[in-house]
What does this fold into?
Amino acid sequence: MMKKIFKVCMCGLVAAALISGCGKKAAEETTEAATESSAQETVETVDLSGVDNGTITLGQYKGVEVTKDAVEVTEDEVNQIIQGELEGSATYEEVDRVVQDGDQVNIDYVGTKDGVAFEGGTAQGYDLTIGSGQFIEGFEEGLVGAKKGDKVSLDLTFPEGYQSAELAGQAVVFEVTVNAVKEKKVPELNDAFVQEKSEFKTVDEYKEDKMQTLLLEKNEQAEQKVKGDIFNAVLEGSTVEPKQEAIDANYNNVLATYTNQAAAYGMDLATFAGALAGMDVETFKESVLKPQAEGMVTQRLVINAVAEAEGITISDEDRQEVADEMGYESVEKLLEIASQFDLDDYIMTNKVMDFLTENAVVK
It folds into this structure.
């Protein structure tokens, strides 16, 4: 039972995944026991096509003035990316010495509480990198200085805020056997590495490609920020009165989406909330889900008002284009995992945002 790192991208169906984007950083902690637990039951979402979102008096939406951030890439940023790739290609070679920070150790361990082994606290042949923060505080540090064949007893305490209520704040003992000590070997950046890992021949070509890729990513981020600023400007200039019934309906769908995402990881929502946001489930609902639901209704009011004012509509070609972009052979196949409402909501949002951007003054 230790801290694990995983990335969660809260992608629901088409609209939830692509309107809001799937780039929110979520390198979060969860527990091995949670990820190994049985799958939870999924929750159905409801069709929102008949929901009255409320009223809006649309303000200025053409000629909105915004500023696009300057985009530049430094050599240090390129070097950081390349160093990350070098680290990702590192190997571990067994060495005959004591464990040091940064080493990888192969271990067997048994965790007990009050003399009884607890669920998720036992493993054999586990590879652990010292300093990775995968295990609770004191575990990795307690192995520094040990060598192959040593048996180490670790008296530790789980954090008070640990996701498992049975272990939070509890004293435990880990009996650990060190099977092997391995030293990290990071490859050198040279032409041979470049030729092995890419289609390029030289380090200079490799660096130039990384710079152009990062430049493209930063430019896309700047463009997305422009769109967000445009939308916020239109929203601030409008009078929006969302209906509570619409907010509640969207909240229920958002709750169902997160619950189902948790189930995909074999967790309940409470465990998932702790892993994703470090919150208890009630705080997660109040500070994350409810504002998200209200934002969805507000966004929909603005988008639909602009669409109506400008006669922006959705065609079958629009739907097919999204299906193609997402790798589905047909719209019908896409609609097997997304509702018609979600698909059209996503398309309309993109079309209106493109219209607003084209008609904005971007400095």
Observations:
- The CA atoms of residues 115 and 173 lie 8 Å apart.
- Confidence is low (pLDDT under 50) at residues 1-39.
